[in-house]
Amino acid sequence: MREFIINTDNQDSVDDFVSYLDETLQGSGLLKVTVKQVKDRSLSQNALLHIWFREYAAMRLNKPLKKITQEDTDSIKLLVKQACYGDMRYDWLCQRVTNIDTGVSAFVLRSTSRYDKGEMFMFMEWFQAFAAQKGLLLESMGEFGRLKDETNQ
Fold this sequence. Notes:
This protein is mainly alpha-helical. It has one domain (11-151): NinB fold. 53% of the residues lie in helices and 7% in strands. It has a two-stranded antiparallel ribbon with strand order 1-2. Helix 2 packs across helix 3 (70-88) and helix 2 packs parallel to helix 4. The longest helix is centred in the middle third of the chain and has 19 residues, at 43-61. The chain is globular and about 60 Å long. The relative contact order is 0.16.
């Protein structure tokens, strides 16, 4: 059994689901399909992500956790989101902004507060693997841990 979080703005997630569905339909047996609307990210996901940002900042900046400033955390958030976009090319990580005076548009990284629950889950899964590659194990807990456990069953 496999569970998908599909973001219609991310063609890769749609293609992955459609490919899996096509392969499954080629086989025999019954299918159970459940479609749920993904809700806004939860406070527990958000709180855990910010703990992770601080822990990652402490490791990367070689500082005690208590010495991590808001500026350190903000820098790490930007670094991690840029790395995620570089690795995964998730379209939902960015948004187009336009200067109304000049008409010049640019793509900027979205605030994590604007991620829905599915986007937040995908970002956190990526971040957890990214941090592990750098030598930091980020603990799965709360709602993120439950969602991850459900996905891995």
